[in-house]
Queue: 2 jobs
Job 1
Amino acid sequence: MAKTTLKKIGVMTSGGDSPGMNTAIRAVARACAYYQIKCVGIKMGYEGLIHNQMSELGARSVKHIINRGGTFLQTARSEEFRTKEGRAKAFENLKKNELDALIIIGGDGSFTGGNVFFKEFGIPFIGVPGTIDNDIFGTDFTIGYDTALNTVIEAIDRIRDSATSHNRVFFVEVMGRDAGFIALNSGIASGAQDILIPEKKDSLDDLFGSLQHSQQSNKNSSIIVVAEGEELGNVYDLAKATEMRFPDYDVRVTVLGHIQRGGNPSCMDRVLASRLGVAAVEGLLDGKSDVMAGIRSNKIVFTPIAEAIKKHNEIDKELIKVAKILAI
Ligand code: ATP
């Protein structure tokens, strides 16, 4: 398989954390051991590269982390790496530690950083999509998304117990600043009355119409799932407007926040992280660079980083239709 003579690969997690990042690091370290190349874990993303915080990872260094949420290498956002001087320091450390290539587990910001670094210094790298938002082009799923969905529906199931006991309308805010994938899928899976996401034009009239319909069809409670980036307003504004329009409703708000990023990765995320970690190592050995390893129709694919950064996955209109039909 090997078309290159790589001897040592650095792996880091960068940007926001997501469940399954540990599983991906483990996969990278073990695949390196399998192919008899050295693996180095870089702490705190690009910060660790700039400040020379790294240590060798053997196959046994990554034991007992397959099931742990977060990332034991820790992650960070690095302002210094955005500067030419910062990246020059990172390059010096890379050379000092004799690293031939990098595997960057993170979101599109982290991939942009890798792309800039590659263009300046020619350091081969492969990106592995790790973010709960599932908003990266070139992969059907990102590492952490499935776990986050499961966390959200478990929380909404509990909220529903309270909602039905009191005739309540609950507005539940879920993560997704730019994308409604978590909201749309968790909304369908938890039987939401309405789902508000930035990708579709929502209006208060539609929302109130849906709530009115819910009332007329004898539902005694409603859950409205709202993506963080919803353009109509935040959950508190939406709840206030609903209270004014329906004074008899007991309207409540829950913001799920960071519980969505934590927890043990689901089986699906562990398998995904394991496959992508191995694919990234094999991709580098095969001479690939400046690409992202992803999964499409259950097959490993490599997408040029420039494309992964620039393009966006479209929301599936069929899912919007299903949500509407089932809210009858
Ligand atoms: P998330 O999806 O959780 O936000 P992310 O990988 O998109 O994750 P960012 O904070 O956008 O997170 O990016 C992570 C880091 O990548 C930044 O802190 C910075 O160090 C580096 N980075 C991002 N954009 C650039 C850029 N244009 N040039 C150099 N480095 C960059």
Job 2
Amino acid sequence: MTSLRGRLARLLTPKIEAAGLEIGTSALKVVELRPGNPPSLSALAMRPMPPGLIQDDEIVDAEGLAEEIKVLFDEAKISKRFAVTAVSNRQAITRNINVPKMTLQELDEAIKWEAERYIPFPIDEVVLDYFVLDNPDDVEDGEQLEVVIAAARLDLITQQIDYLKLAGLEPVVVDIKPFALLRSLTMSLSSEHLGKTTLSGTGIDNEIGVVLEIAASNTTITLVRGDRVLMNRNIGVSGDDFTAAIQRSFGLDFDSAEEVKIDYGTATIPTEDEEELLNFDAKREQFSPSRVYEALRPILVDLTTEIRRSLEFFRVQAGEANINRMVIAGGGAKLRGLAEAIGDALGFRVELSDPWLTVTADTNRFDTEYLKKVAPEFAVPLGLALRGVTGID
Ligand code: ATP
Ligand code: MG
């Protein structure tokens, strides 16, 4: 969809390298990479989102946010001014659609009309992007092409661009968070990494992988086969819901409840050992791991029920589906024992993802323990940074 002039301009100018910036509801995060195969980490930083800048996923204080972004880039010592950023899955629509076989040039003209009926906004008020999954040369005449469409409201994209400009940045791509996530989790999802042998032709390549991101206010589930996105949906239970449950049970403010969740929270019934190990502060005895677990349990049940529903929904649509591996990301995935609890509920193995597998990091410059600790919440900004060095189209 890039204009011919745009394409020519890109050929004549050096390739842009951009940092990946995620404006999350609980934190701002930036990652900068140096191009290479694989790319290498050159900088990262994270700052909690100050209260009052974002409400319900919408930015309410543009100047305050711009200031925070500037400080974030300074902290990370990033001098690049180009940035790849993203809107959340709730602010965008992605779908796989089938269109009659046509040439890519014809599709470029027709996609707007083909996509229109799947988008609940007037087509002229959205930014539409698409990716063709089939090679038209491999598709018989009369058959259909599968295309992923992504649409976001033009006003939200324009807003996002304005905030970045206010912070002195030049936005080059506005992506969608689940797509960024997939880019940084390809290694975590690969069969080889999960200890299985990948032998083409044995059917293992046909397996469906699931990526679940549990962030502060958004949870998304994405089903993929190879590099093909099969389904992408929002789930109505996210990290902050766990905090809110602790708030209600113990009558705490949000920040104190957040602390209790991180210190004592578990997703599985605490064992006696855990009970002792986590009960490190006698003054806070009321927050015994088992009491905190009781507060979290209804939310855990909601989460696993919703995941199961999404998988059922997919199975009904797709017929036979061999789903047996899942990786989880997002800060909410760090709740103790969560991968295990979801795995038990679904009956297959679930693992915490490691987005850093897609890049190299100089251990003299970056603390390995720190990277490991923040891996789940850096999956999205890392995916954005990957787009910033491996091709902007
Ligand atoms: P969003 O993408 O939804 O706008 P975000 O990018 O700011 O939000 P993340 O940084 O991925 O969100 O995750 C923040 C969430 O992770 C919060 O709900 C926080 O409570 C939760 N979280 C962080 N650390 C832990 C932990 N150790 N245990 C449990 N939950 C945690
Ligand atoms: Mg996020």
